[in-house]
Design a protein that fits this description.
mainly alpha
């Protein structure tokens, strides 16, 4: 039922309808700039995490190679 109301009145804020918070009308396009900025910051954060993961994988691979070398020497 709520979905039909929101589909019929596309200008109506779902947050206001469901929770009674905020403005009855959806936010203006100028406020979407904040969302865009948050998305840009989030994408930057994800890229930094990906770089960190790549570094950790490289480090783990190097340590595993060293471990294998030491293990082979100890077996002799």
């Amino acid at each position: 039922m709520l979905v039909k109301i929101l589909q019929t009145f596309d200008w109506l804020s779902a947050e206001w309808l469901i929770m009674g918070k905020g403005s009855m009308e959806k936010t203006k396009p100028t406020e979407k700039t904040d969302d865009s900025q948050q998305l840009i910051e989030f994408m930057k954060y994800l890229r930094e995490k990906d770089e960190k993961i790549e570094l950790l994988i490289k480090e783990m691979t190097e340590l595993k190679a060293k471990y294998d070398i030491v293990s082979k020497k100890l077996e002799k």
